[in-house]
Design a protein that fits this description.
Blueprint lengths: L7 E13 L10 E12 L4 E12 L7 E11 L8 H23 L17 H6 L1 E3 L1
Parallel strand pairs: 2-5
Antiparallel strand pairs: 1-4, 2-3, 3-4
């Protein structure tokens, strides 16, 4: 039995911006994570550029102790973005973002491990769809 080909795939990713501010980190406080995904779909090139920003703050602080901005490049097989792209593309990038947050906070010597939880990010699909532009 042969499976159907993927309708989109991750081609590349990079981190455009990484900001670590240890002054805003509190190891005893709970973490608050804010996501800001957006996408630009270049229809002629059949390429989607997913920008996935993640801010991590401690306790009641409004200032994040870590901000990561990741750009994922996805090849789309059809002429339109498939509906499940909006859920799955974020799920594909999140482990890379999660690892980067841990790595930069470890290298910054926070004195405590920073590990973002594994999350079901399917609730971001609607937000991403609303913040997708087509060129």
């Amino acid at each position: 039995m042969q499976g159907s080909p993927a309708t989109f795939s991750l081609v590349n990713y990079k981190f455009d911006r990484i900001v670590v501010q240890s002054a805003f980190f509190s190891p005893q406080a709970s973490q608050r994570i804010d996501f800001s995904p957006s996408c630009k779909f270049e229809k002629a090139a059949k390429t989607a550029f997913l920008r996935f920003g993640v801010k991590v703050a401690s306790g009641n602080s409004n200032e994040p102790f870590c901000y990561v901005d990741c750009l994922g490049v996805f090849k789309i097989e059809g002429n339109d973005i498939p509906e499940f792209f909006f859920t799955n593309s974020i799920a594909i990038l999140y482990p890379y973002v999660r690892a980067m947050v841990s790595l930069v906070c470890l290298q910054a010597n926070f004195g405590s491990t920073v590990m973002l939880p594994t999350l079901n990010l399917s609730s971001l699909a609607g937000f991403l769809k609303e913040h997708t532009v087509e060129e």
